[in-house]
Amino acid sequence: MGLKVGIIGCGSIARFRHGPEYKANPHVEEIVFYDRHLERAKTLASLFGGRAVETVEELYHDPKIIAISDCSSNDAHHIYSTNALLNGKHVLCEKPLAINVECAEKILAAQKRSGKKLMVDHNQRLTKVHQKAKQIIEKKELGDVLTFTTTFGHKGPESWGVEKSNATWFFKKERSSLGVAGDLGIHKIDLIHYLLDDVIEEVKAFHATLDKTDENGKRIEVCDNVVCALKTRKGRIGNASFSWTYYGFEDNSTIIYCQNGIMKMYDHPHFPLLIETKDGEVIKYELESIQTNENQTSTGVIEAFIDSIMNDKEPPITGEQALTTLKVVESILDGKHV
């Protein structure tokens, strides 16, 4: 007997990632879709052979639905994810976990009370390149990590969102809140925590709205660029850039500088993982390319989420880890200590 799952929010992230990955999972029997705009839910139900419901309560109160993906806008996560957990559903929440730490803590409290699984879609932890890099760092094959640099930038969510419009909710302060820091930056902060088995504790950052305008031609209410310097608990230092104004190819690269060499991830066009050693050796790993807005491949997130439910084990990205990352993003934007 297959599993029955629900999806809340039927925008691009549901259409291109959650929907197809649930559909491809052999353990999932049916997907039930909900969106405030019923036609969007019906469209995805038609695409993936599921069904649409008119109210979110139909998802919450269906005893056969054991898990829910919360693909709503950032401002609604603490509402939908909290209610799903308290109604006995396992939850996979899109990132960021919430628009602020206070709202995120409500979700974590609901998870503790319910005893259900809570996983957050920080999917960069699951790429083969990042997992291989973590193994190399853990084994100290290049010695200790000294510094790092990480970047995530593309043309902006208006080129990705369901409406393909600069009226996108990503540009609205009340719905997005964190701008590019919560959309792209949060992935890379989480990735640094994961790769280095460390936590960023100090932040010095600039953030600005440099180019994006809304549907009325006015500058958007959230930042479209962030540049920051970071220091971890273990004393590593690095820098990070996040942008919605990279008007060329997407950049999703991370470089780790160690005592005995350099590790480059998604920096080379043909070799997603490239190592340059101190003595001049170059080691090339032919692993998979990273998923981009133009190149949709499986993230492994749904597979990991379903596996954690079926085998009753901790998800690979927990609510607590996502909260730690969110605290850093808040610090980047408000200038306060992490």
UniProtKB/TrEMBL annotation:
GFO/IDH/MocA-like oxidoreductase domain mapped to chain residues: 130-263
What terms describe the molecular function in GO for this protein?
Answer: nucleotide binding
Xref: InterPro entries: Gfo/Idh/MocA-like_OxRdtase_N (IPR000683), Gfo/Idh/MocA_Oxidoreductase (IPR052515), GFO_IDH_MocA-like_dom (IPR055170), NAD(P)-bd_dom_sf (IPR036291)
Organism, scientific name: Heyndrickxia camelliae
* Domain Gfo/Idh/MocA-like oxidoreductase N-terminal, first and last residues per copy: 3-122
Checking PANTHER family in the record gives: D-GLUCOSIDE 3-DEHYDROGENASE, UDP-N-ACETYL-2-AMINO-2-DEOXY-D-GLUCURONATE OXIDASE
Determine the domain of life of the protein's source.
Bacteria
Matching Pfam families: GFO_IDH_MocA, GFO_IDH_MocA_C3
Name under which the protein is recorded: Dehydrogenase
